[in-house]
Amino acid sequence: MAPITVGAVAAHFGRDVDRAVAKAIGIIEAAARDGVDLLVFPDASLGGYIGDLNAPDTAELPSALDADGPEIAAVIAAAGAMTVCVGYAEASDGLTYNSAICVSGDGVHGSHRKVHQPAGEALAYAAGDSFRAFDSPVGRMGMLIDYDKTFPEAARTIALDGAHIIAALSAWPASVTDRASRLPADRQSRLFDLYDAARAAENQVVLVSSNQTGVMGSLRFLGQAKVVGPGGEILATTRSKGGLATVTLDVEAEITRARRVLDHLGERRSETYVLDPVPVVEQ
Question: For position 121, what pLDDT does the model report?
Fold first, then answer.
């Protein structure tokens, strides 16, 4: 494939769904003028995130939206030739999921429901149960939602399913137990960047990491949207401020170069990654 321009969004999205949709459309239109081919919004862009990870107020949860509802339809209409990943609270069969959907003007290409839940989130959302890659106008890709990227198996599963791009959509806050005076010095800030680089490098894929900014309830979000190359190098970043991190690259060429000598996926020794049963000692 030819080189593509990739963009990762760092921005604040609140509870007002109509305002969030309008803001997303404005960002899509601006990105289109800049020639962006893949645009990744944060988790919970359409309606905001919960305001407390320990005890979320179940009376003040984000509005749950239908995947085939007017809000997603508006994003599809705005996307045109661009591939857009956006996070929202998804209503399905009486449950609410923390979800992401990947669309273009041609319709929906893929979706993901967050699997791994930090403390308290299970009070607000049901958990997803799978990781899958899918085909899109920019190539085969997959999605993770914030805490998912803490677990190497999640990104590895998507990479083994053929994804060359992983979109990691986040509403990732600063530490709630050990607050730092400056966001760059925060423990969660360091982990956020570490996981982005590690998941890209260990799978030798391009990782596009978005994140919320600003404050929601007791949570202060980190920003730090970025594009990471298959060697773990940060190619573009917003740092802790809002903005759009963009880079133009030939994804296939970058991955081919990264895997030319050391091919991490091809050189796995799966049979060695199993713990032997613990022997039972009879008393």
Answer: 92
Which amino acid makes up residue 30? A
Structure-token pair, residue 45? 């862009």
DSSP alpha helix (H) spans, the chain:
17-33, 70-79, 152-160, 187-203, 251-258
Q: Could you give the C-alpha distances from 260 to 155, 201, 233, 235, 254, in angstroms and in order?
A: 21, 14, 17, 20, 10
Instruction: Categorise residue 108: left if φ over 0, alpha if ψ from -120 to 50, beta otherwise.
Output: beta
Do residues 212 and 42 lie in contact, with contact meaning Cβ atoms separated by under 8 Å?
Answer: yes
Nearest to 22 by CA among 103, 68, 77: 77
What length does the chain have?
A: 283
What's CA 73's distance to the chain center, in Å? Answer: 20
Closest CA to 166 of 205, 218, 119: 205
pTM value is 0.96
Structure tokens at 8: 């990762």
Measured N-to-C along each axis, helices 152-160 and 187-203 cross at an angle, to the nearest 10 degrees, of 30
Which residue stretches of the chain have pLDDT < 70? 283
d(CA 163, CA 217): 35
Cα separation, 191 vs 199, in Å, equals 12
Query: Which residue type sits at 215?
Result: V
Listed in sequence order, the residues at least 6 apart from 174 whose beta carbon sits closer than 8 Å to its beta carbon are 180, 183, 186, 188, 189, 219, 220, 221, 222
- DSSP 3-state assignment of 135? strand
CA distances from 108 to 103, 105, 111, 132 (A): 4, 8, 8, 14
CA distance 231 to 198: 9
215-216 vs 139-145, strand pairing mode: unpaired
Tell me how far apart the alpha carbons of residues 214 and 240 are, in angstroms, rounded to a whole number.
10
Task: Report CA 157 to chain centroid distance, whole Å.
Answer: 15
> What's the confidence (pLDDT) of residue 283?
65
